[in-house]
Amino acid sequence: MSRASELVELPGTVAAGLFSRKGFLEEFEGALTEAEAGEMVHLCAAITLTMEMQGRLLGRMAGQSGWDSCYGWMTWGPEMSIVTIHDSMCIVQGQQTSFNQVIQAMTASADTEIIKPGGKGEPNASIG
Fold it and tell me: What global pTM score does this model have?
């Protein structure tokens, strides 16, 4: 089973996909057309690169390292939300999903470790 196929099975998930840093659609499952999925991965790749750039700038301004690794991001509207972890994205119905469950599944799917905010040993905040 592909990563996108696994992610689209999460409760409340409408679509899931994988994208390259250059904005190419690598994998996709869900209720979007191919054109919509392509636009979505362009958006996700662009925002991810922007977040990485802003992190590097914040690190320079703060004189501290640690700002330069973008783990992921999310944005939400009245009904739908976008969650992005590394090279994967999920479009979810905000009222019908657990963001903690989605982020944990996406992290496991990407075989990555959650970066804890604030430094050593601080647990991640619950986000819903």
Answer: 0.81
